[in-house]
Write a structure and sequence with these properties.
The chain has 109 residues and is of the alpha+beta class. 49% of the residues lie in helices and 17% in strands. It is globular.
Length: 109
């Protein structure tokens, strides 16, 4: 969990205060892990090809487009571990412009 917070902080170039306001307003960074297991002949090679496709071959763009909607924006791969073939994909809620203007009005009070 500590590494994810550090990755988010560095990726978005946020100060500790901004990170607290942006990502930790619910006191928790929600995470869900999906694991793909490749089995069979040359499975290690297939896994490496898949990881390459995700990172460098265009699959990331397909995921961003397919997973983003009106409420959630998928930001894409923000951290990778080539040795373990792991990638961190970040998403965030799309902010409602009406809520933003209410927040600004509340600050004046």
């Amino acid at each position: 969990m500590k590494k994810v917070v550090e990755v988010l902080k560095n990726h978005y170039a946020l100060s500790d205060d901004a990170l607290d306001r942006h990502f930790l307003t619910k006191k928790v960074i929600q995470m869900k892990k999906v694991t793909l297991n490749f089995i069979g002949d040359r499975s290690e090679e297939v896994a490496e090809k898949f990881f390459s496709w995700l990172i460098d071959g265009g699959l990331e763009d397909v995921l961003i487009e397919g997973l983003s909607d009106d409420q959630v924006e998928v930001d894409g791969v923000i951290d990778i571990d080539n040795q373990n073939l792991e990638a961190v994909i970040a998403s965030y809620l799309v902010e409602d412009p009406d809520e933003l203007s209410e927040d600004i009005d509340d600050e004046d009070d």
